[in-house]
Amino acid sequence: MSTVTETHERTGDGPALAPPPGNTARLLRRWWPAAALLVLAVAPYSALPLPGLLDGPLGSPGSLQLLATCLLFGALATGYDLLLGRTGLLSFGHALYFAAGSYATNLFLLEAGLPFAVSALLGLCCGIVLALVLGSVSLRVTGIGFSMVTLAFAQAGSILVSRNPGGLTGGEEGRAAPAELLPSGLVGIENTANLYWVALAYLVLTLAVVHWAVRSPTGRVWEGIKENERRVEVLGLKPYGFKLTAFVLAGALAALGGLVHLLLTGGSTPQTTTSDFTLSLLVMVVLGGSGTRWGPMVGGILYTWADHRLGDLAGSGAVAELPAVLRVPLSQPLFLLGVLFVAVVHLLPGGLARLPSRLVPRRGPADETPAKRARKENGQP
Question: What's the pLDDT tens digit per position in 245-259?
Fold first, then answer.
C-alpha cells in the first residue's frame, strides 16, 4: 500500500497534494519584495485611480512626484536606522549630511560650472568627508553626550546656511539649480516618471547596502555594540572604529539622498538642514520599527505620505464645515501626525514591522502542549 502511494506521489498519477501551509508562508515571505518592486517599477504606466490615497491616477505627474518623495524618505529612514536601530547611536545631526550632498552639488554646479555628473560625485564626496570628520569627533563621547554633540553640529550647519555667507546658500529661500544645468531627462513635468525611477533606484540601493552591511561581520559587531559595548571591548575589539564605519556609511547614504532630493525639487532648501528634519527621521524609524529590515522604509513612506495628505485634509472644505471643537485640531497636520504616531507606539510596540507577527502569531509544533512549551522555556526536560 505504501509502495503504491509513493509511486503515485513520484509519478504524479495520483491526486495532487496541497503544499504545507508553512511552505506557502515561506514562499510569500521570500518573494513579496520582488513582487512589490515589480509593481513599483511599472507604476508610471498605470492609470489606476486611488481616491483618498492620491489626488490623481497612479501614473499622473502629481502622484508620481508624491510617490517619489515617499520612496526617497523611506530610503533615508532606512539609512538612518543603521545608527539608531543597528548600532544604538541616537544622532540628532543626520540631516546635516543630507543637506551637504544637496548644497555641495548645487554649489559645484552654480559656482564652478562643472557638469552634473562631476558635481554629484564631488557633492557625495563632501558628504562622506564631512561625516568622517564630524563622526570622528562626535564618537569620542557616548550616550546622551554623543546626541548633544551631533545636535550642536547640526545647529551650526543650519545657522551657517541661513546666514547665507557670500550669497552661496541663498539663506532662508534656498538656492534653485537652473534647469539647463541638470540632466535634460530629469527636468520638467514630462520627465516625472524618470525622477520617480531615480528615487526607486535609490531606495533599492539603500536597502541592498544596509542588508549587506548588517549581515556582514561588521554588522554583527554593531549588534554587539548595541546590546553591550563593554562586552565587545572585553572580546578585544575596538568599538570606536566600528561605530565610525556605521556613522560614515549612514552619512554617505544620506548625502546620496540629498542628490536625489536636489533632482526632485530642483534646488536646495534650508529646511533640510534643521534638527527638526532629523527628528522627522527618528519618528519614521520608530513608527516603522527600529532595527528591522523593512520597518524604517515603511515608516518613512507612511509618514511622508501622511505629512502631505493630512495637510490637504486640514485645508479641505469638509474640515472647515465641522464644529470648532473638531475643526481646530483637524486643521493642524502636525496634530494629526502626532495622534497617529502615539496610536502606533501605544498599540504596536516595536512599530508597524511587528504587525504581521501580531496578526498571525507563530505556532510551535503541533504535538507541543503548553506544558511542554513552558518546561522548554524554563530549561527543563
Answer: 999 999 999 999 999
CA angle 145, 151, 157 (to 5 degrees): 140
Angle, vertex CA 83, rays to CA 80 and CA 85, nearest 5: 90
User: Strand, coil or helix: what is 196?
Assistant: helix
How much is the average pLDDT of 188-193? 90
Give burial (CB, 10 Å; 0-12/13-18/19+) of 353.
buried
Place of cell 508610471: 44
Q: Are 251 and 161 in contact (CB under 8 A)?
A: no
pTM of the model: 0.84
Mean pLDDT of the chain: 84
Long-range contacts of 171-178 (CB under 8 A, 24+ apart): 171/270, 172/270, 173/270, 174/267, 174/268, 174/269, 174/270, 175/103, 175/106, 175/110, 175/267, 175/268, 176/266, 176/267, 177/106, 177/109, 177/110, 177/262, 177/266, 177/267, 177/268, 178/110
Neighbour-count burial of 352, counting CB atoms closer than 10 A to its CB (0-12 exposed, 13-18 middle, 19+ buried): middle
- Pair 254, 98: CB distance under 8 Å: yes
Give the least confident one: 175-184, 211-220, 240-249: 175-184
Other Cβ atoms within 10 Å of 294 Cβ, number? 18
What Rg do the C-alpha atoms of the chain give, in angstroms? Answer: 24
pLDDT in tens, 102-125: 999 999 999 888 999 999 999 999
CA–CA separation, 232 and 226 (whole Å): 10
Q: Is residue 6's pLDDT more than 80?
A: no
Is 75 in contact with 206 (CB distance < 8 Å)?
Answer: yes
Residue type at position 269: T
Residues 218/60, Cβ–Cβ less than 8 Å: no
Q: Residue type at 51?
A: P
Gap between the terminal Cα atoms of the chain:
38
Strand partners, 57: 49
DSSP letters of 101-148?
A: HHHHHHHHHHTS---HHHHHHHHHHHHHHHHHHHHHHHTTS-THHHHH
Mean pLDDT, to the nearest integer, of 25-41? 80
Tell me which DSSP letter residue 278 carries. Answer: H
